[in-house]
Design brief:
There is one protein chain. The protein is an all-alpha fold and about 150 residues long. It is built from six helices and no strands. It has a domain at about 65-95. The radius of gyration is 18 Å and the shape is elongated.
Length: about 150
């Protein structure tokens, strides 16, 4: 196993572990009810959030078993198809209440959510694995087609 493959595998395993931990924290212990800035409306988006976390875990498990660019692209597309409606639902319900704290928190939360690509993206960058749109995944095919060596 070369270094890039090992880093990519480590990124996928870490993404599965983080998403599983998030599911455990949300549904088992300590539970979303203990988070002080979440309102009871959180229950309205819990199904969508759970679905995204499970889909992301399954996608990364498949990526581990089938290291293929097309499988990776299709898996990312599937997670995106589930994640965008979940994000829209989060924005519509917005189950956050920051009380008397800084009045800019709602803007920060909405902005951070809109630009979020998921923990897997960050993990690939940290572990040195491929990041969609950059590096190996993006450049290899165009270089082959244009004859540019690299």
């Amino acid at each position: 196993m070369d270094q890039a493959t090992a880093a990519t595998s480590a990124g996928h395993v870490t993404a599965v572990v983080i998403n599983a931990a998030l599911l455990w924290a949300i549904h088992m212990w300590p539970g979303w009810q203990t988070v002080p800035f979440l309102t009871p409306d959180t229950s309205r988006v819990l199904g969508a959030v759970t679905l995204v976390l499970v889909a992301t875990m399954l996608a990364h498990l498949v990526f581990l078993l089938v290291p293929s660019r097309i499988v990776n692209a299709l898996g990312n597309l599937a997670v995106l198809a589930i994640g965008v409606p979940a994000m829209v639902q989060l924005w519509e319900v917005f189950p956050f209440d920051f009380g008397g704290t800084w009045s800019g928190w709602p803007v920060v939360v909405r902005t951070a959510g809109a630009g979020h690509r998921g923990p897997g993206h960050r993990l690939h960058r940290w572990t040195g694995g491929p990041v969609p749109g950059r590096g190996r995944l993006w450049c290899r095919t165009p270089r082959r087609l244009t004859g540019v060596k690299g």
